[in-house]
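Hi U.,

Before I forget, here's the chain from the pilot set. I'm dumping it here mostly so it's searchable later in email.
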Amino acid sequence: MTDVSTRPWADDAKPASLRDDDKFHEECGVVGIWGSADASALAALALFVSRPSALMLGVAIVLMLGTLWCLTGLYMLQPNQAALLTLFGSYRGTDRVGGLRWANVFYSKDKISVRAHNFNSEKLKVNDQRGNPIEIAAAIVWRVEDTARAKFDVEDFEAYVLTQAEAAVRHLASSYAYDNFDDPLATKPAEVTLRSGGDEIGKALRDELQVRFALAGIEVIDAKLTHLAYAPEIAGTMLRRQQAEAVIAARTKIVQGAVGMVELALNGLSERGLVDLDDERKAAMVSNLLVVLCSDHDATPVVNAGTLYN
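Structure:
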């Protein structure tokens, strides 16, 4: 063993940097890395980490701020969803591309759905063109077309749609009659009514809604009437009127057919010369045929066993 006296100095006389303890010392340091092609770069990094400095703290802060900047600007858009980008109250555009997106962290990102919306209006009691009280309702399919106008031109575009839809349905009901009570034999074109208008009434409703929704950047996809009826206070009376008109129309059709059949019978007898009838007998034959053809019940035949005039 080596004698203590042969050492250059005793443990108590050693400098503080050479004493055997577990504390870090700034006087010197040795870093060794082997088995790597980038040994020199790793050694420099180890020295940089082991001895922090103002430069290292500055770089770390810059990296943290950059990471925070990137993460804050990220946002997600679902399919058929848009984001309105504004910078300190100034509109910068609309992002419609779905997925994970990034924008300037100072941009305000307001998401808005551009999917199709379905709205069923309530039953509205209004007067038609002729002043008859009716009940009417409609189903409207719409979606946001211009996101900027929907966000900035109206206070609440969904409430705007509900209010304007009700106004459009009321205006449509007052512009057309519920039903047409004109003469069915009239030669003029039939009046377009709410009950018989069909596609024309639907187109008129869509056009009316599109004009009203244009301010909010809303597109009308489809609009149809879902309910149409007379108000309860006149429903019974109007039903009887409709039934009477139906009976009259049916009777008119029956009479027209009966007259044609009588005419055909008289012409056939005259052309073939089967029997020669005077005007009185022709009138009697016409009367009998009309009674048979126009009667609500089956006719009971009476066999004449005498002559034609008895």
